[in-house]
Design a protein that fits this description.
single chain; alpha/beta; Rossmann fold; 3 domains; 7-stranded mixed β-sheet; 55% helix
Length: 509
């Protein structure tokens, strides 16, 4: 029995209108999930989201075109499409996480397959629903209703994903939850339009089977997520949390007991050699003569830089600014991190602020004698601003006349252009800069840059206990071999964010 043999009731029209809204909401969330997973795993968020959006829109066009070859059983066609979207979209993030460790070509094949299939199915729904609604209204009114609700649903989905779904459910369970919404809409339509469906029982059984599967996925989502993370990180995952800002994962090797912290899939430190990085970050800038009563740490929510700063008894105040309150919390409470940072975040001399560093430093406040920038590499456009001349100028205003700044500056070997661009940008703001590097087994050669208005000494005396750095090793750290030597790099700014693009280009080689 086709839809032409029945006139749609007001109740059925209402169900279709709600379906349009929910379909659009689910479609945009699937798109955001795929883009976010790919950004976490492959980096370069602008590139990943641009490709995801582009191919998704292209697939929607193909789906819309393909729908004209369907028969006139619009209700059946819509329900079948909805079932397929729920099935594919509901497991999209899990599939991506599970395929990533094997080979990039496999991951990208799955990724583009998901984008194209989900996009095509979403594209099919719009003309099908428009045709259904046109039985009770003019075609222009049907198109207006469908498109307006489609855009409203997309808005709701795009807002709810970063504000509600991602922080509360994470990526894997978010896709399960949206799949559930999809299949509920399919079930409602099967029931409401049962008189139009020759395959009523078959479709209803299919819906309930997928519903049961997705409900099991949601129920055991924590186990599934942990399994996917173990599959992804190989080491035992001892802590995992999707915060408002990032994905935090702490792992521990079963054989070596090595602990690692990952943020958005990028390793931040290894317990095996983190002391080398943090000693070279902190002690050169702290060992220079002059007042060091007030110290500012930007980033460093793991408490490891603060651990080194606290070795200086004349440091009276430490302000630590990390955008993620959860990062500060787990570093204060998680035993594995407390052992590493020696409970530095519990020190009475330290005050932590859960703020964006850019916002914090642009406010009036005390002047700092030493500033330590322990931010992640500029691997996305949001971090680019924290390595800009505007940001360094704001920091300069919050420093004493004799104040000194040090910044981790990525690798002068793997990201050579990035490293020297950071130095050039600091040199644009400050009168004097000094560059140095060290070797980290987990990361390779790693670089740092100091800056201040007055002269920076070339020799250093380290008087506090250390495991790696010495005054003599700092002399060698200032020597750059030919393949690390200074390049003519650009100044990075908010208006011309060149550093992020340099980072992408450097990692291609």
């Amino acid at each position: 029995m086709t839809t032409e043999q029945h006139t749609l009731t007001s109740k059925q029209i209402s169900v279709l209108l709600v379906s349009i809204l929910i379909v659009a909401l689910c479609g945009i969330v699937y798109e955001l999930i795929i883009g976010t997973v790919s950004s976490y795993l492959l980096g370069n968020s602008v590139y990943q989201f641009s490709l995801t959006i582009g191919f998704f829109m292209f697939a929607m066009g193909l789906g819309s075109l393909a729908s004209k070859y369907f028969d006139d059983n619009f209700v059946r066609n819509f329900i079948i499409v909805e079932i397929l979207i729920a099935l594919i979209g509901g497991v999209c993030s899990l599939l991506l996480f599970m395929t990533f460790p094997f080979a990039r070509v496999l991951y990208e094949t799955v990724m583009y397959g998901l984008i194209l299939s989900i996009g095509a199915l979403v594209g099919m729904e719009i003309p099908i629903l428009t045709a259904l609604l046109s039985q009770r209204a003019k075609i222009k009114d049907s198109i207006a209703n469908v498109m307006s609700l489609d855009y409203i649903g997309a808005l709701i989905g795009s807002v709810s994903f970063p504000l509600i779904l991602l922080p509360t459910l994470g990526l894997v369970q978010s896709s399960f939850a949206i799949g559930l919404i999809n299949i509920f809409i399919a079930i409602i339509n099967v029931v409401v339009f049962r008189h139009y469906l020759k395959q009523f029982k078959l479709l209803l059984i299919s819906c309930f089977l997928i519903l049961a599967a997705l409900m099991l996925f949601v129920l055991y989502g924590g186990y599934i997520t942990r399994y996917a993370e173990k599959h992804l990180y190989f080491d035992q995952v001892v802590y995992s949390e999707q915060t408002k800002y990032q994905k935090l994962v702490v792992t521990r090797s079963v054989t070596t007991r090595e602990q690692r912290l990952y943020i958005d899939g990028n390793i931040q430190f290894s317990s095996r050699d983190e002391f080398r990085y943090h000693e070279f970050l902190v002690h050169p800038v702290l060992s220079i003569d002059g007042s060091r009563e007030n110290v500012l740490i930007l980033g460093g929510g793991d408490g490891l830089a603060a651990r080194e700063v606290l070795k200086y008894d004349d440091v009276k105040l430490i302000h630590l600014v990390d955008i993620d309150a959860e990062m500060i919390r787990i570093s204060s409470e998680l035993p594995v991190l407390n052992r590493l940072n020696q409970k530095s975040l519990h020190s009475g001399r330290l005050t932590s602020y859960s703020q964006d560093a850019f916002t914090f430093i642009n406010q009036p406040g005390i002047l700092y004698d030493r500033v330590i920038i322990d931010m992640p590499d500029p691997h996305n456009e949001a971090l680019n601003k924290l390595y800009s001349k505007e940001f360094y100028t704001m920091i300069k205003r919050r420093m004493t006349p004799e104040g000194i700044l040090v910044s981790q500056s990525s690798s002068p070997f793997f990201t050579r252009n990035v490293y020297w661009s950071i130095e050039k940008t600091l040199d644009y703001v400050f009168e004097n800069t000094m560059s140095y590097h060290t070797s980290l087994p987990s990361f390779g050669i790693w670089g740092f840059n100091m800056a201040r208005q007055s002269e920076i000494p070339k020799e250093f005396t380290i008087d506090v206990p250390t495991r790696s750095i010495t005054g003599e090793s700092m002399i060698g750290a200032q020597i750059f071999t030919k393949d690390l030597a200074k390049l003519d790099a650009p100044v990075n700014s908010l208006m011309e964010p060149k550093l992020y693009h340099l980072y992408v280009e450097d990692l291609k080689y």
